[in-house]
Amino acid sequence: MTDSTQRRAARIIERLDTLFEIGRDAGTNRPGLGEGEQRAHELVAGWMREAGLDVTVDGAGNLLGRAPGADPAAAEVWTGSHLDTPPDGGRFDGALGVVAALDVTEAIRASGGARCTIAVVAFRLEEGPRFGRGVFGSRALFGELEPDEADLVDADGVTLGQAFAALGLGEMLPSGPVLDRPPACFVEAHIEQGPTLAARDSPLGLVTSIAGMAGIELVFTGRRGHAGTVPMALRSDALAAAAGFVRRVYDGARALPGVVATVGRMDVLPGATNTIPGRVELFADLRAPDAERLEALIGAATSAAGTAAADASCAVELLPRWRYEPVQMHPEPAGALRRAIAAAGVEVVELPSGAGHDAAILATAGVPSAMLFVRSDAGGVSHAPEESTGADAVALGVEVLEAAIRELAG
Amino acid sequence: MTDSTQRRAARIIERLDTLFEIGRDAGTNRPGLGEGEQRAHELVAGWMREAGLDVTVDGAGNLLGRAPGADPAAAEVWTGSHLDTPPDGGRFDGALGVVAALDVTEAIRASGGARCTIAVVAFRLEEGPRFGRGVFGSRALFGELEPDEADLVDADGVTLGQAFAALGLGEMLPSGPVLDRPPACFVEAHIEQGPTLAARDSPLGLVTSIAGMAGIELVFTGRRGHAGTVPMALRSDALAAAAGFVRRVYDGARALPGVVATVGRMDVLPGATNTIPGRVELFADLRAPDAERLEALIGAATSAAGTAAADASCAVELLPRWRYEPVQMHPEPAGALRRAIAAAGVEVVELPSGAGHDAAILATAGVPSAMLFVRSDAGGVSHAPEESTGADAVALGVEVLEAAIRELAG
Fold it and tell me: What ipTM describes this predicted complex?
């Protein structure tokens, strides 16, 4: 790396370290529409102003920093990601895409700017854990918030509508599209969050598609009883049902190549050591690379729930919380990334994204979108404090992103 | 029932209703060594004083109300139970045994008293859920608190030692036996908490033995990861391991007649919908009618844990929290109960207790002990707000208890 490239990567990593300290516990905790995310937005807004960008906050609370282009009539080129995190998250997921986009846009503006306006964007509430549904800011662009969106409740009993209002973003959620004029394209840089690039010893990856995914809440209902006095054969143990579901849905996922199923949250009630559980609430996160396998996986989960409940003499209710169809990346911005990767002398590794991203929402809404993955070290661990990426990959990533944005912005 | 018997049962049920309102939510919540249990102890102490009993609190916080006997040299006859409850418990478990004992002792005193002193006792912290270990007050009588007892922690991070001190019971837990002189015998009346008496349409049961039981905390450790990016085959999902354990330990219990296994508490961490669980903590409650089957069940659980962890590429740690051997009831106080049941014209139904009780601790320590079960209606549901017993069974229970205590106290 040249000295200037090293300094560039060092500044980006320093900024990621600064963001990491906001909401720091074991990892960082900046749930979307919370105080930590808000502080991160304010910090980045300050960096945007220092870089000479025009800063605005849209009707959904998304942060935008613009470097105006020579041709005001030309559609904008957008690049960015998000600043919220899952519980005890790492320093790269989301933040890297925003900080790298800012660095790139600052550099292009400093060297005279481009034909199109370039906008750095930090979307609100990308991560799902807080309210059981994510990609809030990007969906709001296109008026895709659900009718129940304001009533979603977090673990502390705060509704999404209350969290939104508490930040001064408005008493009501936006009822229509927040976006006046769609951008010409969107490019999101992001840590891979998986082991593929590390295994191939490649610093960068070009995303081909983003997985389809469904989130389903399941409630198993049995009958509470004393742990010592109810014979095994007479029990309706909601945890026996839930455990059977976990096994069956995981078996179902293993039978479908390329799909994954995860039960990340499970609440066992009443939660007393000597009481047979009468109720278990859990959340199944289902993902597949194409619509056919997503449908098959949802079918397998539905069937697993019914069989597991019946086996344990329990009832089950399935509450679908979200569903996003698989989406392909667009050849135009993806082509610009491909050319930039090749020009940097790096192998072009194509790979699908198993994780969801704001880019999937923009792509589905018709904005030509692409994603650049930066290698995930530490075995691809993500959504955890160990999440890491070497300075070499960061430096290459920001150079490639700059070259692609320069090409797309003309 | 005669009018006076009806009034007697009505007063007992009214007192149980009053106690039920302390810590009332869905059910009642009076965790041991907590504020609710303390208020219940103070309320019952007041009733004891109204009944003319001598009230004391021993070094472990157990409440005693004595009707002095004619012969001060004679060993005391004890009867009672406990006033704490599991989360959202009912109105009979524990409280019935204390309130009935008080009614009986008040009646014997009013009619001139007995040869032996009769003591009504309310033991502290009988239920296990708060600190993962119960029968605190009865174990303390005999110096059987464990060296780590003060350091046990509840869900709010409060230690048992802090809870004890906060009630003004002392800065340190008692280090030796709290009891100076063992009672001649102990009789505990209790709701059955199972369906046997209701199925036989019998109001009362004579307990033959109390089940042996073991409590084991298990910690499954896997590797956190993003729900979308780690292939099923490469996961170390701690919930997959825990679910496998639940299935295997329940299968193991079904293979041993008369034993039960319950996983009542399970914490899935970090608990985010889109993160593969890296850690699951759960509690296995294992019970068996004799030592041989208890040993076999613990072996089955240990083997289930190892196999389930290995199947999911996880590690597991087993932390034994408590173990009580099965114990037989004593022929002398049990004989008094048997004669009293027969004299009341009721069939003598003998049955084992699957639940643990303070009576098991006293029996193991050498105090001749017996238990009278009162029918559990509502299908034998217990540790739940629906827990109930009809006024007819309560009335018969208190009459039988009085006759037995009169015989034992001479």
Answer: 0.78
pTM of the predicted protein model: 0.78
* pLDDT over 90 (residue B279): yes
Question: In A, which residues are within 8 Å of B275 by CB distance?
Answer: 86-87, 129, 262, 264, 383-384
**Region B290-301: what's the mean pLDDT?**
96
Tokens of B224: 């956190």
Stronger pLDDT, B280 or B26, i.e. the higher one: B280
Instruction: Write out chain A residues lying below 8 Å of B354, CB-based.
Output: 226, 228-230
- Least CB–CB distance from A250: residue in B232, B247, B278: B232
Check: CB of residue A360 under 8 Å from CB of residue A327: yes
Helix axis angle, A95-110 to A391-409, nearest 10°: 50
Q: Is the alpha carbon torsion for B32, B35, B36, B42 positive or negative?
A: positive
> Is B306 an 8 Å CB contact of chain A?
no
- Cα B352 from chain centre: 15
Closest to B274 (Cα-Cα) out of A261, A97, A137, A109:
A261
- Which residues 233-262 on chain B approach chain A with CB closer than 8 angstroms? 233-234, 237, 239-240, 242-244, 246-247, 250, 253-254, 259-262
In DSSP notation, B92-151 reads STTHHHHHHHHHHHHHHHHTT--SS-EEEEEES---STTTT---HHHHHHTT---TTGGG
Determine whether the interchain pair A228/B87 forms a contact, defined as Cβ–Cβ distance below 8 Å. Answer: no
Which residues in A lie closer than 8 A to residue B270 (C-beta atoms)?
86-88
Show Cβ contacts of residue A50 under 8 Å, excluding neighbours closer than 6 positions: none
What does R_g of chain B's alpha carbons equal in angstroms?
Answer: 22
Any CB–CB contact under 8 A between B128 and chain A?
Answer: yes
Q: Which two tokens stand for residue A390?
A: 């070497």
Which two three-digit tokens encode residue B62? Answer: 């157990």
Output the six-digit token pair for A397. Answer: 């990533």
CB B265 within 8 A of CB A271: yes
CB atoms within 10 A of CB B342: 12
From residue B129, alpha-carbon distances to A35, B213, B264, B326 in Å are 35, 14, 9, 20
C-alpha dist (Å) from residue B264 to A266, B283, B306: 13, 7, 20
Q: Which residues does chain B have within 8 Å of residue A254's beta carbon, measured at their own beta carbons?
A: 232-233
Q: Which ranges of B220-290 would DSSP assign to H, the alpha helix?
A: 238-254
- Check if the beta carbon of residue A249 is closer than 8 Å to that of residue A242: no
- Amino acid type, B171: E
Contact A228 B261 (CB under 8 A): no
CA distance A291 to A298: 11
Residue B326: φ, ψ to 5°: -60, 150
Quick one: pLDDT at residue A199?
87
Q: Say how far apart CA B29 and CA B14 lie, in whole Å.
A: 18
Helix, strand or coil, per DSSP, at residue B169: coil
Residues B98, B321 contacting (CB under 8 angstroms)? no
pLDDT band at A312 (very low <50, low <70, confident <90, very high): very high
- Identify which of B240, B274, B223 has the alpha carbon closest to the alpha carbon of residue A254: B240
DSSP B180: S
**Does B277 touch chain A if contact means CB atoms closer than 8 Å?**
yes
Contact residues on chain B for A224, CB-CB shorter than 8 A = 381, 383-384
Say whether B275 and A87 touch across the interface (CB within 8 A). Answer: yes
A94-to-A122, A127, A229, A383 alpha-carbon distances in Å:
9, 9, 51, 11
* Beta-carbon separation of A229 and B194 below 8 A: yes
Please, which pLDDT band fits residue A2 given cuts at 50, 70 and 90? confident
